[in-house]
Write a sequence for this structure.
């Protein structure tokens, strides 16, 4: 009896003598002797952090493959140490499925979840946010352009700027300080960029500092009273920050804020980010998500997958993968012994081969393996800046500040695929950014409205900061949509990295062009590039590659504007301006094919009929907007959608190369409504409207909800039914429309035993994997979804039936947030009496 009790407490057996398959943090911690209480949801005073850590560690130790928790809200009120809230160290072979719970962490500039040295750890089905946000939003009251000051008042419940004066982070965290972004009517102000501000902060005005041309008096003078300031404290590492993990997966997770990066993995391999969202919190008026990148894999190992994610309104790169320097040469050397300075905690393993990078021309000057180190690895601290003398297997002539980076492609991201992602409205930097990597494929993604390039392959050797990379090789960029690059706010970049919507470039330690060809085997093919303010595609510093089969339309929209920091070494301003007028530029390269690119024709955009979202799904209702699409207006006359209407056809050729005709709802000269054909494969499809080719991003799901006013915002275009215990059903109005527009109608929940069901209508929902992966919140309260699928009467129309929680009685107008397979729909509202 005593032995069996001990085994049960140790979690080695269950009542049947078998290892349990699931550990529920909300119920099983006490019964298994893991903790003195369970991780109960919706308990703001309960610190979930130690319970979360203990349960997952227990599951790993006792070979329990799945950890779950009841759906609800959990509050992580303490830190494991100076660096993180929750630490998951050495976890192996565990999937943590929190069943679409909301996790709130105390301090916005501290890591939320920190996996370290983990193997086959999966985190899925939850959201991440912070109780103390790492940014604030303020309303402008006045501007003094000459003094570079902006006065403001507090906006809503956002924190006062002075709050950040008291925020402390570990000394070796990244701390870039305070930055300001300006928005008008919800969009980044075109005449302003990312502007540094002075500290300490006060609660009435902000002093803009620095000499950047996008933060000069003229730019500041365009700010007006009523504009919104977003003030960020750009400090920390990541909300989810994994270090040295193999087989680490983040799936169906949403990150709503971070002091730095949303999800980050360093020194890992087989890392997967799938259906991750880094977006402003739905149902709020937040204008940004993270203070830096959305998704990042750094010092990348091999065989990573970054698929089907959504990054919106981040304050740096949307998606990044890099192979950074591990160290830099500290002293000149002509022999086999070289002293280097460690870059961060970069591992310098004996027996590993490294490339040595000449920062004056970005080339590899030699490759050698480390055979010995002084001090030996066992006596090294591992801290950034540590001096180590390497003994190489042969002599190489090196100079100070030359880079040291692994030569093995498996330590530079080899085999990584970046596919099916949507990066949208990045307020600073690039959409997709592979740097210093090898054998990486970027395919079937869409970047829409970025401050800098939509896709940038860069070799950065500048000495003004610690981030530096080696050359890239074997990069394939194919079948992507890159739209409105370089035009979100002022492009706060040099003429080098802001040269094109898709850009490949290397530069030296002084941010100057190099004439060498450190890149090799770069392929840019089959991409659809539209509305770039400069060149569509620029290929530079490449030995061997191709730019072919791309469509570049509506380019060079502002080729002579916003030209910053022209290097004195190389092209003149006139040459740069001439380059920027071209659809494709190949320069300082060898053996690069530039052929069969389409550079003229009309531009058409394809979006969801429900919310104008850019992701579409099979059997969803889409709209193509353009000019001269049809000679007149026509509507179908029967119940079945025709494939020819008003003399117009729409053909959808998917990423697998299969073409299908689309059923048509409506045609006019400026708009064609159609249904994405059933069976259309995920990826970027070619949509031919009449004779005009265009492109669309297809996913398995693309949930969009219809609003009563047709804009995708405001009160839902929904029906409601109140059912009594007797079975009687009473229709309940959700909205009313008149000459002044549409407004919500307060819905009565009825008697205590009544059930109020709202029937939401949308599109792009029926492809959901299961009903359990369709989740809803009404007014921030989890709501049961009873049905999600085809409406049945109209082609492409979907329906979602949601029970209204009785706890919302008297809530008034509240947001409805619907997420389908990790993709969140546009937010609509309902009114609860």
């Amino acid at each position: 009896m005593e032995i069996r009790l001990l085994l049960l407490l140790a979690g080695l057996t269950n009542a049947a003598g078998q290892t349990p398959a699931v550990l529920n943090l909300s119920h099983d911690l006490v019964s298994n002797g893991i903790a003195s209480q369970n991780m109960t949801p919706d308990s703001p005073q309960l610190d979930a952090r130690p319970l979360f850590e203990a349960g997952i560690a227990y599951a790993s130790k006792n070979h329990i493959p799945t950890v779950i928790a009841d759906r609800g809200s959990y509050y992580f009120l303490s830190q494991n140490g100076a660096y993180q809230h929750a630490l998951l160290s050495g976890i192996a072979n565990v999937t943590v499925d929190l069943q679409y719970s909301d996790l709130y962490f105390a301090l916005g500039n501290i890591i939320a979840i920190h996996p370290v040295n983990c193997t086959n750890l999966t985190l899925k089905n939850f959201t991440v946010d912070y109780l103390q946000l790492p940014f604030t939003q303020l309303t402008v009251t006045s501007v003094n352009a000459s003094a570079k000051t902006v006065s403001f008042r507090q906006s809503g419940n956002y924190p006062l700027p002075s709050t950040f004066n008291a925020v402390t982070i570990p000394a070796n965290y990244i701390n870039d300080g305070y930055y300001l972004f300006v928005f008008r009517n919800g969009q980044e102000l075109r005449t302003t960029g990312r502007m540094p501000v002075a500290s300490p902060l006060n609660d009435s005005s902000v002093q803009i500092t620095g000499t950047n041309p996008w933060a000069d008096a003229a730019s500041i003078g365009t700010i007006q009273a009523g504009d919104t300031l977003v003030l960020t404290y750009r400090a920390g590492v990541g909300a989810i920050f994994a270090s040295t993990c193999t087989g680490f997966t983040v799936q169906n997770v949403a990150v709503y804020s971070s002091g730095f990066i949303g999800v980050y993995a360093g020194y890992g391999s087989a890392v997967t980010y799938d259906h991750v969202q880094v977006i402003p919190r739905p149902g709020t008026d937040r204008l940004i998500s993270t203070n830096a990148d959305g998704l990042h894999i750094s010092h990348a190992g091999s065989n990573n997958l970054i698929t089907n994610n959504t990054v919106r309104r981040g304050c740096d790169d949307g998606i990044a993968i890099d192979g950074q320097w591990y160290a830099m040469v500290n002293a000149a050397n002509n022999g086999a012994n070289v002293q280097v300075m460690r870059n961060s905690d970069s591992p310098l393993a004996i027996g590993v081969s490294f490339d040595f990078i000449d920062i004056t021309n970005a080339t590899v000057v030699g490759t050698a393996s480390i055979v010995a180190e002084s001090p030996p690895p066992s006596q090294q601290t591992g801290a950034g800046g540590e001096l180590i003398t390497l003994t190489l297997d042969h002599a190489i002539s090196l100079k100070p500040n030359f880079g040291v980076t692994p030569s093995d492609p498996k330590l530079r991201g080899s085999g990584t695929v970046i596919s099916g992602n949507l990066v949208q409205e990045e307020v600073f930097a690039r959409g997709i950014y592979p740097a210093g990597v090898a054998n990486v494929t970027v395919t079937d993604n869409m970047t829409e409205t970025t401050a800098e390039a939509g896709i940038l392959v860069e070799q950065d050797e500048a000495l003004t900061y610690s981030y530096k990379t080696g050359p890239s090789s074997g990069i394939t960029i194919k079948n992507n949509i890159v739209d409105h690059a370089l035009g979100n706010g002022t492009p706060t970049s040099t003429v080098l990295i802001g040269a094109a919507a898709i850009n490949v470039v290397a530069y030296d330690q002084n941010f100057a062009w190099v004439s060498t060809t450190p890149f090799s085997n770069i392929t840019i093919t089959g991409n659809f590039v539209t509305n770039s303010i400069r060149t569509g595609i620029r290929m530079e510093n490449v030995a061997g590659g191709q730019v072919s089969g791309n469509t570049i339309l509506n380019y060079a929209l502002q080729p002579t504007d916003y030209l910053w920091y022209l290097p004195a070494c190389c092209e003149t301003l006139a040459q740069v301006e001439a380059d920027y007028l071209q659809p494709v530029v190949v320069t300082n390269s060898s053996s690069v094919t530039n052929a069969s690119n389409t550079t003229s024709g009309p531009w058409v955009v394809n979006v969801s009929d429900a919310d104008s979202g850019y992701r579409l799904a099979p059997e969803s209702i889409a709209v193509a907007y353009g000019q001269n699409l049809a000679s007149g207006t026509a509507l179908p006359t029967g119940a079945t959608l025709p494939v020819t209407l008003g003399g117009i056809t729409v053909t959808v050729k998917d990423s697998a190369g299969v073409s299908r005709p689309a059923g048509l709802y409506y045609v006019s000269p400026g708009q064609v409504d159609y249904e994405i054909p059933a069976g259309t494969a995920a990826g970027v499809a070619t949509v031919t409207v009449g004779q005009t080719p265009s492109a669309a991003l297809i996913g398995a799901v693309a949930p969009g909800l219809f609003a009563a006013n047709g804009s995708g915002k405001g009160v839902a275009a929904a029906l409601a039914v109140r059912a009594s215990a007797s079975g009687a059903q009473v229709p309940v109005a959700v909205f009313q429309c008149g000459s002044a527009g549409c407004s919500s109608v307060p819905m009565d929940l009825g008697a205590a035993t009544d059930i109020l069901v709202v029937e939401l209508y949308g599109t792009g929902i029926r492809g959901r994997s299961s009903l359990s992966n369709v989740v809803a919140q009404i007014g921030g309260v989890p709501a049961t979804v009873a049905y999600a699928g085809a409406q049945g009467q109209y082609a492409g129309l979907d329906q979602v039936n949601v029970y209204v929680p009785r706890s919302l009685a008297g809530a008034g107008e509240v947001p409805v947030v619907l997420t389908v397979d990790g993709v969140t729909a546009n937010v609509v509202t309902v009114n609860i009496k």
Remarks:
- Residues 1-16 have pLDDT under 50 and may be disordered.
- The longest helix spans residues 49-61.
